[in-house]
Design brief:
The structure holds 2 protein chains of 2 kinds. Chain A contains 24 helices and 4 strands. Chain A is mainly alpha-helical. In chain A, helix 8 runs antiparallel to helix 9, helix 15 packs across helix 24 and helix 23 packs antiparallel against helix 24.
Chain lengths: 543, 374
């Protein structure tokens, strides 16, 4: 309880509070004149409304597409399952500007879809151009957040005892009735958790909206960024940030209502719950899901790989060679190995912090009592807070003794962990809550100390979920850009920062190298996650 | 063997969680646990080993595009005993704003990258200590925009419209030679610009229009451009790589970029072509000058002065074109061949007084947003 509370206090409440107060006290005195002015501005209202409805629509759409995927990846075994599970997490680490570029290519008039339409219908074919539409934003949000649903819900789903469903079926319940009456109530808390995370992510969407929605569309996050970074209008930024925080808090309260305590249930090892598809219907279900993943998730990634290989006159490894070849040695011409190493080191540090903070918070929240639940909600607030607010807050609040962390490398893993921690909690908590308290009581009655109960009962059961959470945290940390770019030192860029710099320069080889670096970023992340997914922990295979 | 490896790796991951949470789990039982310190991420063990005690390290706060040859920087360190830590703070505007917000506890000793579009804000907020570098003697006086020497000019460059040479030849369309031409029917749907609220070349191009058409006329120009189907992106890289026809998948042959983009296209091509695929429209160019300044509150003012001198030294100035694709401000600095051949330095670029920009910037951006985007 103390570890996560202290972490939240130092790296979230303090910086964000400092920057908000700076904005609300422009002359050293509290001046709330800006509040009604900003809140009654029609522009603010329009932006707030757009932010809300696109987030709600994105969340519903992501759940619709993601839940079947979660079921398939949790319960059906098929060839390539673990590779697929790693691949769907890759979108998380790619810089938005890179993905945005791939989506623009896929949604524009010269997309493969239009080529297909033209091929089939000839001259009469309509040309689809979805660039700068809300549809583009929604598709990209599904692309980025599909893994949230699959991993958060799948983490619990893969542990559900299939015998419950089989019993219902034996007793004559239809497939749909079985799902509705048996499976759904059991996975509902995890679904609510995934929905909350997707909502918070899309509510604070920044790059996706900027690039794919076009400049006419703005979310509150975009307006906060403009007010903070471009206009230096801190009173405006503070009011908007408070509005965003209020909306996020309201969403979290609703989520708390929706999420009834999970019923304790017999959990099974994930290895025993998955089986090959048996009926024709199941095979078709699997096929449809794989098609969705291929079209929506893999297509943009393939565009990037294709671009990294495209040379002026064909395909080759030229851009990779250029990336690793001897460049003019300037401070920012990053040696790829160095960027990869920085990314991995920061990622590991952030993952450790997130596991410790999130793990402790999940344990606290799984116990009876209000304070644990409050802490659990509070840890989700950073997801709903603007990166510019957090980034500038870090610079303001953590730059004075006793917390003078100016230029410290600690700030980067701390900022990354701030975003990754909620995932650890959300992945662990449903599993922890499902553990039958009677098991713990029995162990305690038999004389086990609390520490021993935790080690012998809880840990083996949550072990796999811990690894899943670790993989996800790592992906988030490696891909984090918004805060890292504020805090990173020039000589030690991470991979996303290096990609961003390469993309900031004209010239064919710079663009090619940015794509090559993006492909490497994908591979590094996918391998790390695949490795973690394959690990087996001590007792987990056997209980 | 493999399974054992897995078990070990997995065990390590769990041991970490167990170790930390053992405390947290026990904490609910007894309130007398020691409070954890906030420094739970461990010691800062990644600091560079070459930090020698007799060397001073000073921090250069700068924008993301700052670059310097390692060898040149190393020579500076050897000659002066000063190590330079580089801390990028986002784009130019964001870097300046951070410096203003953190002036009580500055993030560094020298700031590089404030340009004439943000200069007046930095000067009004008094974040710099005046310093008149002896190296200023070699600088073309047109770049000395602050007579109190709170900032020192380091480089300049021009934001200009770039055009796709091949497209204009194939389609037999004349390359526009004045901003007013762009509102002509012949150029409908050809131009991509960036949002001045989120992009620094975008802002420069807006300022170019203010200078060319005046405060009374620039909005009419933009209204005509909007009617002529101008495309707005939020950042330079989307415009240049996704919409511009010469350098990506795009379909538009006119884009806001830099006067140095054509030489960059040659320099970063493999093999380099004889002619760049893109050209520059000189009448559209807006001059940007970048400055460095010593930050108030520095504890290393003497060293900071040496760093400013270094930024004006020949060693640094002559690498500017190929590291940052800008031009040196020190007169007679030799240019690399690719710049000699392909770079354009307009004789009469559009320019605005920094104070005028400071007074009008936010209002112009706001009016532009209402005219073009809404």
């Amino acid at each position: 309880m103390l570890v996560p509370a202290a972490f939240l206090l130092v790296f979230f409440v303090l910086p964000v509070g400092t920057i908000l107060l700076t904005g609300l006290r422009p002359e050293g005195r509290l001046d709330l004149a800006a509040v009604p002015a900003v809140l009654s501005d029609p522009v603010t209202l329009r932006v707030a409304w757009f932010t809300l409805w696109q987030a709600a629509a994105s969340t519903v759409l992501t759940l619709l597409v993601g839940l079947p995927g979660a079921y398939v990846l949790a319960r059906l075994s098929f060839r390539g399952r673990s590779a697929l599970r790693a691949a769907i997490t890759v979108p998380f680490v790619l810089p938005t500007v890179v993905v945005g570029s791939a989506f623009l290519a896929l949604l524009g008039p010269r997309s493969p879809l239009n080529a297909l339409l033209g091929g089939v219908l000839g001259e009469a074919a309509p040309t689809l151009d979805l660039r700068r539409t809300v549809t583009a934003i929604l598709l990209a949000h599904v692309f980025f957040n599909y893994a949230v649903v699959v991993r958060t819900v799948g983490g619990l789903w893969s542990h559900l005892d299939p015998r419950l469903e089989e019993a219902a079926r034996t007793l004559g319940a239809s497939r749909w009735a079985t799902f509705r009456e048996v499976s759904w109530p059991l996975v509902r808390p995890a679904v609510a958790a995934a929905a909350a995370i997707v909502f918070l992510f899309t509510f604070t969407s920044f790059g996706v909206v900027l690039i794919l929605g076009g400049p006419g569309r703005a979310t509150l996050e975009v307006e906060i960024y403009r007010a903070t970074v471009q206009l230096l209008d801190l009173p405006l930024a503070s009011v908007l940030a408070l509005l965003q925080l209020a909306a996020v808090t309201a969403a979290l309260l609703v989520y708390g209502r929706l999420q009834k305590r999970a019923t304790a249930q017999p959990l099974r090892s994930a290895a025993t719950t998955a089986r090959p598809p048996r009926t024709r219907g199941e095979r078709a279900f699997l096929a449809v899901n794989l098609l969705v993943v291929a079209g929506l998730l893999l297509a943009p990634l393939l565009v990037l790989v294709e671009r990294s290989l495209a040379t002026g006159d064909g395909y080759g490894l030229d851009h990779y060679a250029a990336l690793f070849g001897t460049q003019r040695s300037t401070v920012l011409a990053v040696a790829p190995f160095e960027a990869i190493r920085n990314s991995v080191l920061y990622g590991l540090a952030a993952t450790s912090v997130a596991l410790v903070v999130g793990g402790c918070a999940a344990v606290a929240a799984s116990r009876p009592g209000r304070s644990g639940r409050l802490l659990d909600r509070a840890l989700m607030l950073p997801l709903g807070t603007s990166a510019a607010t957090v980034g500038f807050g870090f610079l303001l609040a953590l730059a004075r003794p006793p917390l003078d962390l100016r230029g410290s490398r600690l700030l980067i893993p701390a900022a990354q962990a701030l975003i990754a921690t909620p995932f650890v909690v959300r992945t662990l908590l449903p599993v922890l809550r499902s553990i039958d308290q009677r098991l713990r009581d029995a162990a305690a009655t038999l004389g086990a100390a609390p520490r021993r109960v935790w080690r012998e009962i809880d840990l083996p059961i949550v072990g796999r979920a811990v690894l899943a959470a670790a993989g996800f945290s790592f992906a988030i940390a490696v891909g984090e850009f918004g805060a890292t770019v504020f805090l990173a030192r020039g000589q030690t860029p991470t991979m996303p920062v290096a990609i961003f710099r390469l993309l900031g320069r004209p010239g064919v080889t710079n663009f090619g190298q940015a794509m090559a670096m993006s492909t490497i970023l994908m591979l590094v992340t996918a391998s790390a996650i695949a490795l973690l997914d394959r690990l087996r922990v001590g007792q987990v295979g056997r209980f | 063997m493999r399974t054992r490896l897995r078990a070990v790796a997995g065990g390590l991951a769990l041991a970490l969680l167990l170790a930390a949470c053992g405390e947290a789990a026990d904490e609910s039982a007894g309130p007398d646990e020691p409070e954890p310190t906030e420094d739970e991420t461990g010691p800062d063990d990644m600091s560079p080993p070459e930090d020698l005690p007799d060397q001073v390290t000073i921090t250069l706060v700068t924008h993301d595009s700052f670059d310097v040859e390692e060898e040149v920087l190393a020579r500076f360190s050897t000659e002066t005993g000063i190590n330079v830590d580089i801390v990028p703070g986002g784009d130019a505007g964001s870097t300046v704003n951070q410096a203003i917000l953190t002036r009580d506890a500055p993030l560094g000793d020298v700031l590089f990258g404030v340009d004439n579009t943000f200069l007046s804000r930095a000067l009004d907020e008094e974040i710099f200590v005046p310093y008149e570098s002896p190296a200023l003697a070699g600088v073309d006086p047109q770049f000395l925009l602050d007579d109190q020497h709170r900032v020192t000019p380091v480089d300049f460059g021009d934001v200009c419209l770039n055009y796709d040479r091949a497209w204009f030849e194939e389609n037999d369309v004349e390359v526009p030679d004045d901003l007013q031409d762009l509102t002509d029917e012949a150029y409908t749907g050809l131009l991509t610009v960036m949002n001045p609220a989120t992009s620094s070349p975008g802002l420069a191009f807006l300022l170019a229009s203010v200078e060319r058409f005046g405060e009374d006329g620039y909005l009419d120009f933009w209204e005509a451009l909007a009617d002529n189907d101008v495309l707005v992106t939020d950042g330079w890289s989307e415009a240049y790589y996704d919409e511009f026809s010469a350098t990506g998948d795009g379909e538009r042959p006119l884009v806001v970029s830099y006067a140095s983009s054509p030489p960059a296209e040659v320099y970063f091509a493999d093999p380099p072509p004889d002619e760049p695929p893109t050209g520059v429209i000189e009448a559209s160019c807006f001059r940007q000058v970048e400055f460095a300044g010593i930050l108030q509150g520095t504890e290393h003012e003497a060293e900071a002065r040496l760093l400013v001198d270094f930024l004006l030294s020949e060693a640094f100035q002559e690498t500017l074109p190929l590291t940052m694709f800008v031009f040196p401000v020190v007169e007679d600095t030799p240019l690399p061949e690719v710049f000699e051949q392909h770079a354009v330095v307009p004789d009469e670029p559009l320019q605005l007084d920094p104070e005028e920009i400071g007074a009008g910037r936010e209002e112009w951006i706001d009016a532009w947003t209402r005219t073009v985007l809404r």
